[in-house]
Amino acid sequence: MTTVLISGDDFIAPELFFTALRAEVPTAGLDFRTLRTRWPNEPFGPVGTGDGSVKEASGTEDQVLEALGDASVALTQMAPFTARVIREAPHLRFIGVARGGPVNVDLAAATAAGIPVTFTPGRNAAAAAEFAVGLILAAMRRIALSDSELKKGMWRGDYYAYDNAGLEIDGATIGLVGYGAIGAIVARVLRAFGAHVLVSDPYADPVKAAGDGVELTGLDDLLRRSTVVSLHARVTPETRHILNADNLKLLPEGAVLVNSARGDLLDYAPLPGLLESGRLGALALDVYDIEPPPSDWPLHRAPNVITTPHLAGATRQTADRAAAITAAEAGRFLRGEPLRHVANTEALATGGTRGPLATGDGDGTPTTGGGGASS
Fold first, then answer.
1. How far, CA to CA in Å, does 305 sit from each of 19, 40, 172, 268, 299?
2. Of 84, 93, 99, 262, which one is the catalytic site residue?
3. Which of 36, 129, 175, 314 could bond to 226 as cystine, CB 3.0-4.6 Å?
4. Cβ(34)–Cβ(369) below 8 Å
């Protein structure tokens, strides 16, 4: 009997994982346990202690351990698989994470144990790209701000005055910092509007960029030339605060800045001053240095700021794709086939400290693991 833990939440429910897995493998040989945490209705955060902790996780180590039992396969989005969880779950052989990066898993511990950890590249690329374009439009044309003011009884006819009028995408130079799956879709949409798109990404393929009709350039040149700058990079030690007090000064007067990628890409400290001075004409944010931002957060009082609560990837299609990709990886693992999206390929090479997957017959009936609500 192979036991599978399906750990869902209020975005990707356990039922979604189960339906996707049932389409991949016969469930008659599987026994299911479930756990459901409350993200996004309860914020994620760091879980665990010391070097074995993880970030952006939902639920507790004890909940996961109780739910796991003797499970050898786990599908999740947000559950914390810390070093402690991996150490105290000796039957575990596979972790499938329905996210673009498995930041809720201690990859070093999983690798040492020989546990492959899979992820779901591109699961929210379309959703995040559409949202970024929406933020760009809202900031350039004051859509959200004028709506809020009108609901308060303020008719801002002065926004039609030349000095206050918005900007068009058509003919604008827009800079994208990062050019992965999301950035490429954003560029395609912006070019359809008539924008000239600059890209700063040292890993971008020049041939692909040329074919896409975008111009590769350095970050400083991008900042100097762009009416709008939108962030689409991953967070690494090199990209943390890639935009900061020093290089934000390079932006043209009145430029628009958009961050719907990751809060750590941007140093938020200089932004209120840049908005007050007019160096920044508008700021649109979906991610933050502190999530959620506190009530005394300085940008709450700054002019021309649009804020949304980390919603860029929040579409039903994203949840469906994430569950399907994760289930497909679990199906490959259960069938003994090569995995396609492994975050720690070293685990496949070393074999780790754990033995082969035990298989057997069962009725495929889900059972509820402890520590969380049943699906």
1. 41, 24, 21, 12, 7
2. 262
3. 175
4. yes
The predicted model gives 279-301 an average pLDDT of 95
Query: 168, 291, 301, 316: which one is catalytic?
Result: 291
Fold of 2-123+315-368: Rossmann fold (3.40.50)
Please indicate whether residue 232 is annotated as part of the active site.
no
**At which residue do the structure tokens 């144990």 appear?**
113
- Cα–Cα distance for residue pair 357/276, rounded to 1 Å: 60
Of residues 99, 232, 279, 310, which has the active-site annotation?
310
Compute the distance between CA of residue 42 and CA of residue 371 in angstroms, rounded to an integer: 16
Q: Residue 285: enclosing H or E segment and its boundaries? A: strand 280-285
**Pairing mode of beta strands 366-368, 30-36:** parallel
Query: Could you report the per-residue pLDDT of 215-270, keeping only the tens digit for each?
Result: 999 999 999 999 999 999 999 999 999 999 999 999 999 999 999 999 999 999 99
Q: How far is CA 19 from CA 25, 93, 147, 232, 320, in A?
A: 10, 21, 41, 32, 10
Quick one: CATH architecture of 125-307?
Answer: 3-Layer(aba) Sandwich (3.40)
Average pLDDT, stretch 183-191?
98
Which ranges in the chain are annotated with CATH 3.40.50.720? 2-123+315-368, 125-307
Kindly list the distances between the CA atom of residue 72 and the CA atoms of 64, 129, 329, 330, in Å, as whole numbers in the listed order: 13, 36, 14, 11
Q: Confirm whether 329 is a catalytic residue.
A: no
Tokens of 209: 């960029």
Helix, strand, coil % over all residues of the chain, rounded to 5: 35, 20, 45
Question: Would you call 262 a catalytic residue per the annotation?
Answer: yes
Quick: pLDDT tens for 83-110: 999 999 999 999 999 999 999 999 999 9
